[in-house]
Amino acid sequence: MPYLIANWKMNLPPEGIDAYMATVGAAEPGDVTIVVCPPFPFLRTLGACGAGVCVGAQNCSDQQSGAFTGEVAPSMLRRSGADFVILGHSERRTLFHENDALIARKLSLALETGLTPVLCIGEDLRVRDSGQVSRFLADQIKVAAVDALASGEKVILAYEPIWAIGTGRNASGAMVAETLVEIRAALERFWPAAHARAPILYGGSVTPDNVDDLVEHGTIDGFLVGGASLDARKFLAIHAGLRRG
């Protein structure tokens, strides 16, 4: 089943949460699972909207409790109404210096807590230009091959080429399709068989303008959408493009 995930980051939709959720919730979902990931304080607000849309968090701690000021435990997210959690987003890696080992610990704890992780992987421009993309992504997947995968029900991957996020440079559908084949091969090599066919989303500045090109090649299982997800109409235009594909 395809997934369409809205990552609001540290923003709120200009039309307001209630109006946004009413608009998105009224859309014909088809076979697409819609997930909205707001800032932490608004998880319960979204859960209370009754819009038939799933709720996710944008991050979690690698600890369940303790003296970790400013952190939020996976179990707290569950109690706040989240069913999904984004892990290893490119901004967490680049701005907050989260490494593969830390993200792997978060992945383990999220799985043990019953959350569905959306694990983000992706290369920067240096790796892309050096021709090392396949090896780089395989290494990220290998480190994330945690023991908890054996008992975890579901994991979603999101391929985010860092060089295509907010830079004005976009990956073509053909380029993404080629890279997703390499990601799938790494999953089959390093992850348990139950997760080797995990959904792989794309998350590199997806907009209504490039969605058709991205889905044309038929290898994408959905999208992780940043800026365009803040406008309900743009988000639904991407939803329509995903359904067309």
Keywords for this structure?
alpha/beta; TIM Barrel; single chain; eight-stranded parallel β-sheet; 10 helices; 245 residues
Task: Explain this structure.
The chain is built from ten helices and eight strands. Strands 7-6-5-4-3-2-1-8 form an eight-stranded parallel sheet. By secondary structure, it is of the alpha/beta class. It has a single domain, classed as TIM Barrel (Alpha-Beta Barrel). α2 (43-47) links the parallel β2 (33-37) and β3.
In terms of topology, how is this protein built?
Blueprint: E1 3-7, H1 17-25, E2 33-37, H2 43-47, E3 54-57, H3 74-79, E4 84-87, H4 90-95, H5 100-113, E5 116-121, H6 125-130, H7 133-143, E6 156-159, H8 173-190, E7 200-202, H9 211-215, E8 222-225, H10 232-244
Parallel strand pairs: 1-2, 1-8, 2-3, 3-4, 4-5, 5-6, 6-7
CATH T-level topology: TIM Barrel
Number of domains: 1
Largest sheet: 8 strands, parallel
Q: What is the terminal-to-terminal distance? A: 12 Å
In terms of DSSP E residues, the strand content is: 5-15%
Helix-residue proportion? 25-40%
Strand order of the largest sheet: 7-6-5-4-3-2-1-8
